[in-house]
Design brief:
Number of helices: 4
Shape: globular
Helix content: 55-70%
Radius of gyration: 18 Å
Number of strands: 4
Largest sheet: 4 strands, antiparallel
Oligomer: single chain
Structural class: alpha+beta
């Protein structure tokens, strides 16, 4: 199967899952509501105006929105370029690019639709509380982790490949 087809199918499924879950939260949960699922997990409806962990949420919207939308467009271009250059890349590398791309697309869609990103997965343990996140954030995190793991494994399989900076 071509890397472009693997990329497209993976990205489409991930974007649709992200969109569906955020749409469900946005239409069925009141803003700032909390549904306790377990002693360590809640479903919440949080509007994240910033980046990861709410960073830059206090910046004026006239600067923040164009900045985040511009960063997304740069990310789309970078992933597209990396996919195009990855003729001999592993399936894991292509999947990682698709996941990173789809996560960026999912959060980009929210910023266009609402001016914020819908977050709803909330984990906590005792006094420790992780900031809420969404399916797009999971896709980005898994994609980056998979890319790093693939790079490490490629260096072990082919030590000469690590010096070129390109995936084998």
């Amino acid at each position: 199967m071509s890397r472009y087809l693997v990329f497209a199918v993976t990205a489409a499924v991930s974007v649709l899952l992200d969109f569906a879950t955020k749409q469900w939260v946005h239409t069925s949960m009141p803003y700032r509501s909390v549904d306790e699922i377990t002693s360590f997990f809640n479903l919440v409806y949080v509007r994240n105006y910033g980046a990861a962990f709410g960073m830059l949420s206090g910046v004026d919207e006239s600067l923040r929105q164009p900045f985040f939308l511009g960063i997304s467009l740069v990310a789309f271009g970078a992933v597209g370029w990396m996919l195009h250059k990855a003729e001999k890349a592993s399936a894991a590398y292509v999947l990682s690019l698709a996941l990173i791309f789809s996560g960026a697309v999912g959060n980009f869609i929210d910023r266009i639709r609402f001016g914020f990103v819908v977050d709803f997965l909330d984990f906590h343990l005792g006094g420790a509380h992780w900031p809420s996140f969404n399916v797009a954030d999971i896709a980005i995190t898994v994609g980056v982790g998979l890319m790093l793991l693939d790079g490490l494994l490629e260096q072990r399989r082919n030590p000469a490949a690590g010096s070129s900076g390109e995936p084998a």
